[in-house]
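WP5 quarterly update. Target: MOSC domain-containing protein. Source organism: Shewanella sediminis. Length: 146 aa.
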Amino acid sequence: MKKLIGIGFKPIKQGPMTLVESANVTQTHGVEQDFFGRPGKRQITVMSKDQWQLVCAELDSPLPWTTRRANLLIEGHCFCAADQGKLLRIGKLTLEITGETDPCKKMEIAHAGLEAALTPDWRGGVTCRVLNDAIINKGDLVQLLS
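Structure tokens (predicted):
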């Protein structure tokens, strides 16, 4: 079963992640209060717990998922190129997967080797566009739709 297990946002550029149990997600602001939530292909980032665990094992370091600075953490699915263009339903929220989240130099600053560990097989997660406004909660079921 796929489900949402983490919700976070950055209220200021390069600031720390704020974790919440629920969030209002809108087409105009992404995860409410997120600095980067403006409309576009990279409005929200979603990461797989399963893939994050691979990264941590490769680095031999149990890093918190917020090190990646993604907005949402799901379990039960590993992202791949075939997911691009599909819809991701989280509770009543629908997101369009627009592409892979490419790891940047900030990941290397966060932890040595992290950028390289995130690079293969879409381990860095996916970028998404918000298709409708909805409130999401940790524990919401997640569906991948064609």
